[in-house]
Amino acid sequence: MARRRKRKSRRRQEGRRILENVPQFSIESGEDKPVTAARKFIKSKSIAPPALLLVKRNEHTTDRYFWAEKGLFGAQYVEENHFLFPSLRLEVEEQLSVASR
What we know:
InterPro entries: DUF3155 (IPR021498). Pfam families: DUF3155. By secondary structure, the protein is α+β, with helices and mostly antiparallel strands. It is built from 4 helices and 4 strands, in the order αβαβββαα. It is 43% helix and 22% strand. The N and C termini lie far apart (51 Å).
């Protein structure tokens, strides 16, 4: 039987493109849970939002989190709902102004 391809959401693809332009940090979770490791890293490095954190849980799994003014969110949620985040709106406007020059 032929396997059907999963439909890609345009809104999520647009959100992924926007997140590509946000600063990214890769860390290892170590003994902590991935969210705890991300929160500790943000606090220790005084990272200003917006930022994307890639937390390696083990050799096969990497969790993605988005650091916003409102708190820490899963990156997939932010991709689908990027219009809810004012800091990402500013990123889009900057991209458009650079592209129009």
